[in-house]
Amino acid sequence: MKQFKFSFLALALLLLAHILPAQEAYQFKELKRLNTTSVKSQDNTGTCWAFSSASFLESEALRMGKGMHDLSEMFVVRHIYRQKCENYVRRQGKANLSQGGLAHDLLNAVRDYGIVPEMVYPGRNDPSKPFNHSKIEKDLQDLCNGFVNDAQNNKLDPNWLAAVDKRLDEEFGEVPVKFTYDGSVFTPVSFRDYLGIDPDAYVSITSFTHHPYWKPFMLEVPDNFSNGLFYNLPISEMMRCLDNALETGYTVEWDADVSNRGFSAQNGLAIVPEKDWKDKSDAQRAETFKFYEPEHAVSQDYRQDLFDRQVTQDDHLMHIIGMVDEAHSGHYYLVKNSWGPISDLKGMLYTSEAYMRLNTISLVLHRDAIPADIRQKTGLVVNDLPGSNGRARPLESGDIKSMDRANPTPGKIQSSNLTKKPSTPSGNQGTKQ
Predict the structure, then answer these.
(1) Which residues, in sequence order, are bridge partners of residue 352?
(2) Which of 108, 114, 128, 331 is the most exposed place for a label (fewest CB within 10 A)?
(3) Does any domain span residue 265?
């Protein structure tokens, strides 16, 4: 009888094991990690667009053999805040005036104003304290609302932008005209050229069905205040551009939705669980980022539906720097965040292919990282005309001439002494855009 009970129990356990397969932890193996600088923190600001894009250009400098450089995000932020103020007032207060932005905002500023090292322009009165832009945002909003009111009453001071500059200088410091770095004197523009950065060499791509494929369009997200254009590709081709870039040594700038339940910076993981969060038990929710689970299939239509219903939104920008293999499901991406060195991955994230397909708003990458057939189909070719500086241009360029602006290239100034770098805080988790 005892033997029968024992055999019955063993059989029951065996059957249960087949019905309820054992949970297995995620198993990651990094396949490729491209050169990048250390993780920073945007702290209490909505400037992920500047931190991720500056990190992207820092990797570009490394790729081009220009060495390791820590670029000033706030140099660009200060310029873009001024542009936003002017845009807001000239549009009679009917425009976005916030801390958020997109990657092309940094590229546009680098084209127009150059760039400087962090040590030259820390962009705060006390570099030992975390960034916090809540007050400057409110002050600029109040200031610009006053200007709109003045304009509507025919009382706008013709020098109103000087008041904006004054407040920005109080917050960020005066913008340097020239500076000393690594034994040489530069202007912001000559330093950009010294690093070999050509802002016109970068292309923004996306994937939505409400515009024709293979053509550029103005992406309808609130932070696109500067009316940037994005080349529209089928989702499979957008992902092919991403993979091709990483495989050939180019990092990629990433704009994404991170406000969903599948994103966890604290766990260093971004996934699209097949089972909806509301259908999970408390125990299953607690184990979501610990044990492998199947992911939702992401089609073009499913992606579009979530974007149209504003489930997928323009939340946050990060920097894609590598490729990862997960033992159960395969392809993942290594992503550098700007919320400080949190989680076991010290500020990095493992992001599944499904998450990338579903939650990508846009990617920015070097034109040479795009497969040749896609460059041909979109009309992106290298302009070999004299004076073109090798910029990408469309075959039919009437609607995107603004992408092919002139780029001044003043030279390097004579050498002097190196300025000492102020300390930079590690910071804490920043706000989501």
Answers:
(1) 332
(2) 128
(3) yes
Q: Is 37 helix (H, G, I), strand (E, B) or coil?
A: coil
What is the three-class DSSP state of 78?
Answer: helix
Distance CA 71, CA 120 (A): 9
**CB-based contact 195:54 (threshold 8 Å):** no
pLDDT band at residue 8, thresholds of 50, 70 and 90?
Answer: low
Tell me, yes or no, whether 9 lies in a domain: no
214 or 393, which is more confident? 214
What amino acid occupies position 103?
A
Residue 32's beta-bridge partner residues? 323
Whole-model pTM: value is: 0.84
- Can you give the pLDDT at residue 422? 33
HEC string of 261-276?
CCEECCCCEECCECCC
The neighbour count for residue 398, using CB atoms within 10 Å, is: 6
Residue with the two structure tokens 């790729």: 63
Contact 349, 321 (CB under 8 A): no
Structural domain boundaries enclosing 278: 22-397
How many domains, in total, are found in the chain? 1
Q: How far apart are CA 235 and CA 149, in angstroms?
A: 45
pLDDT digit string (tens) for 178-208?
Answer: 999 999 999 999 999 999 999 999 999 999 9
